[in-house]
Every structure is written in C-alpha cells, then in structure tokens.
Structure of N-acetyltransferase domain-containing protein:
Amino acid sequence: MDEHVVDNPAMSRYELAIGDEVAAAYYRIEDGRVVLVHTEVPHQFTGQGIGSRLAKGVFETIKASGRRAIAKCPFMAAYASRHPEYMALLDG
C-alpha cells in the first residue's frame, strides 16, 4: 500500500493509493487557500484508518506548500480539531 498522498490538480483532489483503489480529498482554490470540500474512502476500507492517513498527508502537503486551508469537509475539520498541529493551517 502506498502511504504517499499526492496532489492531482487536474481532478482537484489529493489522492492516497490503496492497491487499485484511491481515497481522495477534493478541494478548490479560493484566494490562494485550499478549500477542502469532500473526502471519499472506498467503502471496503471504511474504519481502517485510511481517512486519517489521507487527512494527515493532505495537511502535511498543504503545510509544505506554505498555503492555508479552509475545512468545509466535516471529516477534515474533525481531523484538524483532534490534531492541534494542523489547526494553525486553518482559516474560517
């Protein structure tokens, strides 16, 4: 299993490969900020920590880019609230 989250700007999403499947965090860019709008994990992987690994990779990628984020996605907002090191990245 690939643990590396990659940005796929053509599809406006961050991706985490899980075998032949992909967990994805969809976003749009507004005023230079990454607005996280929806997260999807393939059903067969629900409850296995895939979403959390995706979220960590997304926030680490955003942090490395020097951008700020807005978590409209409830999953991403909840993840950030449980990890104070990522709360500093959030606006709104």
